[in-house]
Design a protein that fits this description.
Blueprint (H helix, E strand, L loop, with lengths): L2 E5 L2 E3 L5 E8 L8 E6 L6 E6 L6 E3 L7 E6 L4 E6 L8 E7 L2 E2 L3 E5 L2
Parallel strand pairs: 2-11
Antiparallel strand pairs: 1-3, 3-8, 4-5, 4-9, 5-6, 7-8, 9-10, 9-11
């Protein structure tokens, strides 16, 4: 079956960086928007960033603008989320979504 897998999460100090990756099996990202969502404890899942099928259009939630960058490599069938200047409010489980498919999430914890 289709499987999306996120990786790259972990524990990082405030001000640090992480790069999340989303790869897929039995599914090709090309031709689809791909999104990164996150869900913090006790909060609703929120859209963080999105990239168009061509990669030419991106969207960012206001709190991550200028700090996060979404990108894609259709040749590698992968989508990335570069996260810089992380702060504790970025702590959440991060999910990628393409078409109707979701990954299982990767935990990002920002703490000193």
């Amino acid at each position: 079956q289709v499987r999306l897998v996120e990786s790259g999460g972990g524990l990082v100090q405030p001000g640090g960086s992480l790069r999340l990756s989303c790869t897929a099996s039995r599914f090709t990202f090309s031709g689809y928007f791909v999104s990164w969502f996150r869900q913090a404890p006790g909060k609703d899942r929120e859209l963080v960033a999105q990239i168009s099928a061509s990669g030419g259009t991106t969207y960012y939630e206001d709190s991550v603008k200028g700090r996060f960058t979404i990108s894609r490599d259709n040749a590698k069938n992968a989508v990335y989320l570069q996260m810089n200047s992380l702060n504790p409010e970025d702590t959440a489980v991060y999910y990628c979504k393409a078409h109707i498919y979701w990954g299982q999430g990767t935990q990002v914890t920002v703490s000193s």
